[in-house]
Amino acid sequence: MSLRPTDVGHRVVVRRILGEENDGRREFGDLLGELIELDPDRQRVVVRTAAGDVAVAVADVVAAKRVPPKPVPRIDALELERIAALGWRGLDTATLGGWQLRAAGGWTGRANSVLPLGDPGVPLDTALDTVRAWYAERGLEPTIQLPLPARDDLREQLEDRGWTDRWGALVLVASVPALRAARLAVPGLPPVTVDDDPDAAWLAGYQYRGRPIPDVAVEVLRTADAPGFASVRENGVPLAICRTVLDEGWLGITAVEVDPAHRRRGLATHLLAGVLDRTDARAVYLQVDPGNTIAVALYRKLGFRQHHTYRYYRPTV
């Protein structure tokens, strides 16, 4: 058998003996998945497959080898934005045909903008009048989040009507098995913990755009299906934090913060490794400000690639 202890955590294929047929010939079967155990005595291997963990006696292994990590599933920008919207929601929502209207007291663009996943079902000018009125009732500026290039058509129509590009983000994706295989955990750092609810220390560590978060932010952070609040702590004090969600096989990572006094220790990659160890997701996405060149470079180095961008548009008058 060609597997080695260094293959643990990587994707492998293992051909094993299943038994003998009536005519005495051996019957074989293949396992494809992540190698999670290769014991010191090499008496068995354990492979994590889509159907669960399977243990195989080394004596029954006919052939085995490492194979490339499973790639990121193919998904278009609008579908990924639909999934991401499940993980970061407005507190007050409405629909207009294929448009999602979201509001949450003005905290974050994603929770306070229109996500146009399809056609609004009415003429565009009528839809925009509806959007203006809906946000005005809530004391908010009308804002549309445009996934690009998927909604280049709508972007051109908005610009013709005087709407302008205000800010936006890059959406990066990666394969969870590939990231696990990279072994991002940093020896010597405290373990990563994930809680169901953010405590006061976690919330204090989250500085959105350099400022403490408002009260409405706590409700936004909690509003998802089983969000997780991860942290790396020393003496109870968070050194690094992030929020996680899992929707339709995709892990979403948001609210990533590293205490400025503890940067350059590998805390961000260590935090990511701990989160990945606890997920059943097949792929992960995150959003990052294109101006945050340090973060963008780090994520690219780890194996993330750009999937698409989105920009926020608002009317000039």
**Poorly predicted sequence stretches spanning 5 or more consecutive residues:** none
Helical coverage, percent range:
10-25%
Tally of separate helices? 8
Question: What is the overall shape?
Answer: globular
Instruction: Compute the number of strand runs.
Output: 18
- Largest sheet at a glance? 8 strands, mixed
Q: Roughly what is the average pLDDT, rounded to an integer?
A: 91
Helices and strands in order, then pairings?
Elements: E1 11-20, E2 26-38, E3 44-49, E4 52-57, E5 61-66, H1 77-87, E6 92-96, E7 99-103, E8 114-116, H2 124-137, E9 144-148, H3 152-160, E10 163-175, H4 176-181, E11 192-195, H5 200-204, E12 207-208, E13 211-212, H6 215-222, E14 228-234, E15 237-247, E16 250-258, H7 267-276, E17 283-288, H8 293-302, E18 305-315
Parallel strand pairs: 16-17
Antiparallel strand pairs: 1-2, 1-5, 2-3, 3-4, 6-7, 7-8, 9-18, 10-17, 10-18, 11-14, 12-13, 14-15, 15-16
What does this structure look like?
By secondary structure, this protein is an alpha+beta fold. The chain is 23% helix and 39% strand. The protein contains 8 helices and 18 strands. It has an 8-stranded mixed β-sheet with strand order 9-18-10-17-16-15-14-11. A 5-stranded antiparallel β-sheet has the order 4-3-2-1-5. The longest helix is centred in the middle third of the chain and has 14 residues.
Entry keywords:
five-stranded antiparallel β-sheet; alpha+beta; 8 helices; eight-stranded mixed β-sheet; 317 residues
